[in-house]
Amino acid sequence: MASPGYGKKPAPDQAPRKADTFAHLPAREAYIASHIDRLPEGAAMDVKTLAKELPYGQQAIGTALNTLSAAGHLRRERETVGDGRTQWVFRSYFSRTPRSDAWWAQHLKGDVPQKADTPKPPAQPRTRAPRSEAYETLAALGRTDARMTLSASECEELEPLAAEWLARGVPREHIVRALTTDLPENVHVPGAFARRRLRDKMPPEPLPEQAPTPIRRRMMECTNCGTPGLPEALSGGLCRPCHGEHTAHRQAAEPPPVDVRSRAAAVRAASRAGRDAFLTMKRR
């Protein structure tokens, strides 16, 4: 197992494991993918650890992991540990179901829906839906002052107005106080009286709060060399150098091989010719 917070992380919403799950991969990659698929969450799956567990060397396993990444089974991501801490951890997400680059990009943003594994709770007997807070506030007026006792139909009719008060941040007790304070001696139509006060004393709408700027807390990195980057820059989970796009340019820039023995023989011949010319001139 890897250190706490590191290691394998299974991708959400995977298809069930079958005998031919990795049949589309080469034999070596299918063998390694099957082994990783059965590792528990949090298990170490770096090249050195896998080389100790599997009959392949580190170089072969590194190449196989790149192939699994390009096939959509594997991505390496960095993310914070959460709880307000700034420590970063490195996790390898594995999916037995191959995913596209677009799917992995959504997963990095946290937009991929996850299916719940828990069974559905048993159906409960049907009961009458509870009344809203606005309705209960209006129904409580009669208990505060009998002159403002409202019928059920009046509470339903005035419910939207009371709900607007609550939406604007007014507590229930303040609404009751506004509708029962300074009442006349006789309130003949409490529903109409309550409607008039709810409309005339409606508080102002609160100013909208400025949403904080979201902080990016996760990034993707190349499966092969670990270079961090945006998902669109890591096609198949690999950076462009690891994809081999610059291999031809590097090979073309290498100097041609030099025949050292021929070059040394030419130098010795030039040295002897210069010495013979010098001796001839000296005799003259």
Essential attributes:
five-stranded mixed beta sheet; alpha+beta; 12 helices; 284 residues; Arc Repressor Mutant, subunit A
List the helices and strands and how they pair.
Blueprint: E1 7-10, H1 27-37, H2 47-53, H3 58-70, E2 74-82, E3 85-94, H4 101-109, H5 133-139, H6 141-144, H7 152-167, H8 172-180, H9 190-200, E4 218-221, E5 228-229, H10 240-243, H11 247-253, H12 260-283
Parallel strand pairs: 1-3
Antiparallel strand pairs: 2-3, 2-4, 4-5
Explain the overall architecture.
- Among the domains are: 7-109, Arc Repressor Mutant, subunit A (Orthogonal Bundle), CATH 1.10.10; 133-200, no CATH class.
- 43% of the residues lie in helices and 10% in strands.
- It has twelve helices and five strands.
- Strands 1-3-2-4-5 form a five-stranded mixed sheet.
- A hairpin with a 2-residue loop joins strand 2 and strand 3.
- Mean pLDDT is 81; it is low at 116-120 and 246-250.
CATH topology of the domain at 7-109: Arc Repressor Mutant, subunit A
Average pLDDT, all residues: 81
Biggest sheet strand line-up: 1-3-2-4-5
Strand tally, please? 5
By CATH, the architecture of the domain at 7-109 is named Orthogonal Bundle
Number of separate helices: 12
How far apart the termini lie comes to: 89 Å
Output the helix-strand order. Answer: EHHHEEHHHHHHEEHHH
* Global geometry: elongated
The chain-level structural class is alpha+beta
Residue windows where pLDDT falls under 50 for at least 5 positions: 116-120, 246-250
Query: How can the largest sheet be summarized?
Result: 5 strands, mixed
Strand content: 5-15%
Helix fraction by DSSP (H/I, runs of at least 4): 40-55%
The radius of gyration over CA amounts to 38 Å
